[in-house]
Every structure is written in C-alpha cells, then in structure tokens.
Amino acid sequence: MTEWPSRDQAQAVLAEWTKNENLKKHAYAVEAAMRVYAEKFGEDAGKWSVVGLLHDFDYERYPDAANHPFRGAEFLRDKGWPEQLVEGVLAHAEYSGVERDTPLKQAIFAVDELTGLIVAVALVRPSKKLADVTVQSVLKKWKDKRFAAGVDRKLIEQGAEELGVPLEEHVETVLEAMQGIADELGL
Q: Considering the entire predicted model, what is its pTM?
C-alpha cells in the first residue's frame, strides 16, 4: 500500500496494539491537535490526524527508548504505508534521529508533550473538565516544575519554536483542539 491509510485503518492498528484507555485517549488528543495544525497550515488534515493517532501505537508493547517508536515504524513499513507517515511517527520522539524538516514532523513533536500537560491541568480542576482549563491556567501550572514533573517543558518550548508559533498561541491551539473532543477524552 503506497497510499495513505484512512483513519479507520489507523484506528484498527491502534486498537490492535493499544489496550490502555489512557494511552488511546492520548492518541486522540494528539490526533485532534494535529488536525487543527494541518488546517492552520493548509495541509491535509486527514493525513496529519493519522500520524497523531499512530504516533504512540507501539508504546504499550515497547515502552523503552531502544524500541519505541522504532518497532512501530518497522510495522508500518512492513504494511507498505508511506514513508512520510512513518517518518512523521518517528519524528515525535526527539531521540529518533529523524530530522523535523517538514511542518508535519514539527507539529507532531510540538503537540505530543503539551497534550499531557493539558490533561494534567484538567485533572486538578474541581470539575476535571477541559472546558474549565484556560491558557492562563496551563501557563500558571507550567511554572510549577513539580506539577506534572514528567512533562518536559523544554521539549514543548522547542516544538513551538520549531513550528514558528509563540508558546501561548501553541497552548491555545492545542487546548482548543482537545476541548473540541472533550467527551471522547472523558474530560
């Protein structure tokens, strides 16, 4: 298959490889952010959303940097899926060695970590709802390095810079994308 897989095909791969519901929700959050960025940049939102959906599909089986996302990339190549998709999946991991030389690769890198921070901010709101999260509340929690300590803020800053988007605007874009699928995310 040299043509780009459909969302349904990508969803089938995600379902086969990923059983953890929170990991699936992370994939949906990244997918939503990728779709919005594709539209902002005049790119194919369907293609970009598939990269978002699949970026961590192998993580449950291979949670270590020696294998993730490399094993998933091998699987996608074996399926005959386009190299542009495979490189997009690889680009989300800073250690993959894939140059982030296209807007798609820059976007997947930029949105991945940020979605986790936004979920963490939502979960400490009394309502536990994305609707109650603001850009300001994310940026306030940003400054508290103990909050969501596993989220690498330097990677988020680097991603926004590579995208050419100010950090506050980047947070707003990803937050709005996630708010648009809040029900699917259970937030």
A: 0.96
Residue type, position 185, single letter? L
DSSP tag of 55: T
Residue 4 CA to chain centroid, in angstroms?
19
Residue recorded with tokens 């709101």: 125
Domain 7-185: CATH class, spelled out: mainly alpha
Assess contact for 60 and 19: CB atoms under 8 A.
Answer: yes
3-state SS string for 6-32:
CHHHHHHHHHHHCCCHHHHHHHHHHHH
CA nearest neighbour of 111 among 46, 180, 53: 53
Residue 15: CB partners within 8 Å, gap ≥ 6? none
**Are 119 and 102 within 8 A, CB to CB?**
no
The pair of three-digit structure tokens given for residue 66, joined into one six-digit string: 């020696």
Domain boundaries, the chain: 7-185
pLDDT, tens only, 52-103: 999 999 999 999 999 999 999 999 999 999 999 999 999 999 999 999 999 9
Of 73, 58, 68, 48, which Cα lies nearest the Cα of 23? 58
